[in-house]
């Protein structure tokens, strides 16, 4: 099944599975606030030859946004679902997005748990260039991905563009969205992204309250690692979050 999508001034074609809610709404999602935030932020803040990771790429809408916003960048699109990874690869090829490469595995806290899981730290050791940017949308598994990227975060200091979904944090990770946000605010300088891709700082409690009451539980935030953090402090801060997710699994 295929749909036409208008994105960044181009008419694109995506294939997906009938009954997949994300795919069935992909045309509307392409025009939604999340895609505008991402594409405008990328256009404002990324240089042309950036190395970018799209972690939780699904069938390729956000990967396409990054590839079109930065046509000289190299995009690595991580997708855990084998079926979606196949769709992702086909969609990138069909739309001529040759600057994007599919990585068919889940980014995790540890490598080798399952064959299709790897840490960003382990994977990034195979890439010669530093990582400039990470787009992160993993439905409540953010702590695991960040814990597995601790060495990369300190070495390369990539900017992280993350979806904060308080429903996913509460129901998938089984954590308090406020406690998770407070931990993120301790490790990173955190900015909210507006419609034009500009960044604004918010108090953590005011942010979570607005997220739940005004923004349908979904916001885009940008994370910049604080200079006093090292890989061990990142893993230690995230350990309770990762432990809670593993215990709930």
Automatic annotation (TrEMBL):
Keywords: Methyltransferase, Transferase. Gene3D superfamilies: Vaccinia Virus protein VP39. NCBIfam families: fkbM_fam. It comes from Hyphomicrobium facile. The keyword Transferase applies. InterPro entries: FkbM_mtfrase (IPR006342), SAM-dependent_MTase (IPR052514), SAM-dependent_MTases_sf (IPR029063). GO terms for molecular function: methyltransferase activity. Residues 119-178 form the Methyltransferase FkbM domain. The lineage of its organism: Bacteria, Pseudomonadati, Pseudomonadota, Alphaproteobacteria, Hyphomicrobiales. This is Methyltransferase, FkbM family. The keyword tRNA processing does not apply. PANTHER family: METHYLTRANSFERASE, FKBM FAMILY PROTEIN (PTHR34203), SLL1173 PROTEIN (PTHR34203:SF15). One of its GO terms (biological process) is methylation. Pfam families: Methyltransf_21 (PF05050).
